[in-house]
Structure formats: C-alpha cells, structure tokens
Amino acid sequence: MPASIETKASKKQPSVGHESNDLKKTKKHKEKKEKKNKKSRKDSTENEVKSKKRSSNDSDKSIAKKTKLVTDAEKQQQQQKEQKSTPASAVSLAQAKAFYEEHKISVSGDDSYLPYLEFSQTPFDTKILKSCAKFSKPTPIQSACWPVITASRDVIGIAETGSGKTFAFGLPAIHMLSEKYGKKAQSCNKPLVLIVSPTRELAIQTHEQCLDAGKDLGITSMCLYGGSRKQDQIWDLKKNKPAIIVATPGRLLDVVENDQAISLSSVEFLVLDEADRMLDQGFEKDIRAIIGMLPQGARRQTVMFSATWPTSVRSLADTFLRNPVNVSIGADELAINERVDQIVEVIDGKQKNFRLLELLKNYHKSRKNRVLVFALYKKEAGRLEEMLKRKGYNCVAIHGDKSQTQRLDAIEAFRSGSIPLLVATDVAARGLDVPDVEYVINYTFPLTIDEYTHRCGRTARAGKKGVAHTFFMPEDKSHSGNLINVLRSANMTVPESLLKFGTTVKKKQHASYGAFFKDVDPNVKPVKIVFD
Predict the structure, then answer these.
(1) How far is residue 341's CA from residue 64's CA, in Å, rounded to a whole number?
(2) Cα distances (Å, whole numbers) of residue 444 to 299, 470, 480
(3) Exposed, middle or buried, 512 (CB in 10 Å: 0-12/13-18/19+)?
(4) For the chain, what is the mean pLDDT?
(5) Residue 109 burial by CB count (10 A; 0-12/13-18/19+): exposed, middle or buried?
(6) Residue numbers of motif Q motif (predicted)?
C-alpha cells in the first residue's frame, strides 16, 4: 500500500484512545442535558403545584367571598325584616322615664324595653288595630307590656281593674299567630293560644274581644265555660278548629281529660288572667294540672295578669314563668283609680230600700243611663229585681240561680242600653266591661275588700269618670280598716261615721282555709337550726 494512501486511511480511522475520550465527552454532555431536563421538569412540576395551590387559594378566597356575600345578604334581609316589624317612630329614654313616672309604672327583670306611647309605634297589623279604633292611645298597662310580650318574653302584669289588660295580652297573641302562622292560624287541629279566666262572664268577654281583634285576619276564638251544654261546645270545637281557646279551669279540664275533645300539646302562648281571683276561688290545683298538659320550657310563652300581687300569685309565677319581666302599675296592692268618686254612707239595714230608691231618683233620673246595683246574695238580688220592677224601673238581674243563657241575655241588654239598670251579685264584679256605666251602688258590702275594689272598677272605664256609692252597715265593721285605707289611697273623703268603727286591718282570710291559713313567702330562705 502506498504511503499517501495509508496516511489518509489512518486519518479516517482514529485510534482507540481518541475514541474513548470522545465518548466520555458525549456522555457528560448527555448527563448535563438530562440533569437540565430533569431540573426543568422539576421546576415545571413545582410551578404546576404552586399554580394549583394559587388557584385553590383563589378558589377558597372566592368561595369565602361568596359565603360572606350570602351571609351579608342574609344579615341585610334580617335587618330589613326587623326594620319592617320595628315601629317607625321610637320613644326616647327621657320620654319613657317621664311616662313611667307619670303613671307610677315600675318594671323589673329587664327594663330595656321602651313603651309604645302611640298605636302607630306598635308592630301590630292595621287589621288588628281596628279593634282599638275607639281609643286615642294605648292604656299604661298596654304601653308597657306590648313591647315585652311581642319580644316573646314571659310577663307578669299587675294593674288596677278596668285598665285594659285584655287587649294587653290579646293583641300580642293574635299578632304572634299572624306573623308566625299566617293563614294556617285560621284553622288549627290543636289550639295555639290558651287564656284561662276565673269566671264565665270574664271568659266570654275576653273571647268576644279576641274575636273582634282577629276577625279581619280570619283568626277565630272559642270559649269553654260551665253552665252551658258541653256537647255543643265540643261540636263547635271540632267544626271551627280555633287557634285561641278562652276557658274557665273546670270546664277546660272536663273537655280535655274526660272527653278528650282537644289536646293542649301545641299551646305556645298561655295567659293566666285574674290570677289572684283564680287562686282565691281554689283553682290552684286545676291551674297546675292544666299547665302540666302544655309544652314546657322555651316552647311556651306565659303571661300572667293580676290585680294584686299576693304571695300565692308570686309562688305560681316562680313555678311556671321563665325569667319574667314584671310590669306593675301603681302599688302591688289592689287600688281603685282616682276617676271613681267613692261615696261611703253608713246606714241601718231597715233604711236601705228607701235610700236606694232615693239614689235612683237622682242617679237614674233619665231612666236611660246605665246604673249597676250590687247585692251580696242570690236571693237578695232576685228580691231587688222584683222590687225595682214594681216601682216601674226597667231592670234585670244576674246571679247564680239564673241560667247562663239568661245571664248572657241580661248582660247584652245592659251593654246595649235596652235595659239600663242591672242588679248583680259578684259574678259581674270582674267580668263586666261596659264603658258607659255611670254609677255603681253597693247595696250590700261584699265579703272582701278586693271584691269591693272590683265592683267599683265597673265604672270609670276607658278613661271616663264615675261614681261608686256604698252602703256600710254596723255588721260590716270588720272591713272598716281596709275600706278607710282604700279611700285614703285614692284621696277620697273618709266620713266620720266610718272612722267610729276603727282603722284596724284584720288579716286576710283564705277562701278555703279561713283564718287558719298560713301565708308563707316562698322567696324567704329557710333558716338552718343547729343544736349543740
């Protein structure tokens, strides 16, 4: 082989050593490239993860932002709802304080509620307020109680007779039914509101006022009381399915326990009206049995109204009310408003008939104005009715010997004015609400000073003035001390003839246990006695 050719061939085919170095360089280059690719892939993966995290965080922020917007919208809707139910014009603290001082109102338990001084400030529907059209503004007990009751708080209301207590609890009850149930409140398989009253007349009167306030909303009421056919009442219950039941304790228990005509398991609003009278009449056991059938705790709102605040009523309130707000008008003791001109005449029993006729010539001169004459016993009321009819007076009497239909007809005739002179026993002392009774004549003094106060409360109602003329006989001297205190508390003149009987106030006797009853204050803690 020629040298030139060999040289070219040797150049074309490198040596083994050179080939090894080139391979090493190639491998290093590849390794660097792979490392770079791995690093770029790692960076890319990390960027993807970071991007996902960022997008996730952004999504979480977006969700949180949306949730916040929903929450804010709900809050705004709630605020709008509250603003809608809140009265347009608010009462200032200064106005509230002046109002409480003027009407001697004390509020304990929670004094953060401001009174409603005008009907326009209440949350009640205009359809409900139609029942108050004849009144210019709420009464003090209504002004103070309405904001508390509509806030779903338990309430104890203490106020004088004739102060407007029925509307104080009736309107908030109907408002609750309308707001919470709407049209469903027009027909209820189980009652949602229960009002317990001590007498038939008071129960019927409360029932009528509830009907009047709820009629434009289609909310019905049913009254259960003794002296009327029970089967008729049960039939009406099943037919009308009322949201409100007004009842006397005995008939209510009879219908629920014996006939099982209704269930009280859905009652959300309970009213104990004239609680002191119910306890005085011995209904405490019945009341406790009735409340035991109702929903307990926060599922039920309880409102208690009373003219007095004795230990027995306090004990009942402590047992069945949850953290109540106590609204008291004036003193806790029973009082007569100063619009009633009280005249007490000490008289011999033989002169009473003649003196009654003399008073009627003066008080009932027109024979058209309403006059109410109170007797003590059923036979006495019947005798007076016959005597006055013989003297030419257009009168009627109500007492326990008359049927419930006769009693209702008599009250309706008196209320309408077709029979303007009514003779009654104490069955009408609390249950009669006729705004235009000008005169009350107590022909015979009642057995208790509380009944005297309630009798006098039948006049001077709805802001008007009236006269209560009372015959006081020597046989009534045990009441002289209490009567003198009542007259003085109302700034009335105490006749010298009454002072002669003394000013001693005897201990109030229990209706069932008499003078042997021990009035124990349940708020007083027992004293622990340790014997050494």
Answers:
(1) 71
(2) 47, 8, 14
(3) exposed
(4) 83
(5) middle
(6) 117-143
The residue from 303, 329, 355 where one domain ends is: 329
For 91, other C-beta atoms within 10 Å of its C-beta total: 17
For the chain, give the longest Cα–Cα distance. Answer: 179
157: DSSP letter: E
Strands of the sheet containing 244-247, edge to edge, are 105-108, 325-329, 155-158, 301-306, 269-272, 193-196, 244-247, 221-224
**pLDDT tens profile 86-140:** 444 478 999 999 999 999 899 999 989 999 999 999 999 999 999 999 889 999 9
In a domain, 29, yes or no: no
Q: How far is CA 74 from CA 71, 77, 192, 214, in A?
A: 5, 5, 29, 31
Domain that holds residue 266: 93-329
Residue 61 forms part of a structural domain: no
Q: Would you say the C-alpha torsion 62, 63, 66, 68 has a positive or negative sign?
A: negative
Find all residues with CB under 8 Å of 313, minimum gap 6, and list them.
Answer: 275, 276, 279, 304, 306
| Helix axes 165-181 and 200-214, enclosed angle (nearest 10) | 50
Measured CA distances, 139 to 255, 343, 479 (Å): 35, 26, 31
Of 447, 471, 446, the C-alpha closest to 354 is: 471
- Give exposure, 252-261, as e/b (b: 16+ Cβ within 10 Å): bbbbbeeeeb
d(CA 319, CA 300) in angstroms, rounded, equals: 14
* Of residues 487, 499, 491, the one with CA closest to residue 453: 487
pLDDT tens for residues 481-530?
999 999 998 899 999 999 999 887 765 554 444 544 455 555 555 555 66
Q: Which residues pair with 302 in a beta bridge?
A: 270
The single-letter code of the amino acid at 128 is: I
- Residue 376 inside a domain? The answer is yes
Q: CATH no. for residue 146?
A: 3.40.50.300
Pick from 329, 350, 376: which residue ends a domain? 329
Please tell me whether residues 446 and 486 are part of one structural domain: yes
In angstroms, the CA 244 to CA 191 distance is 6
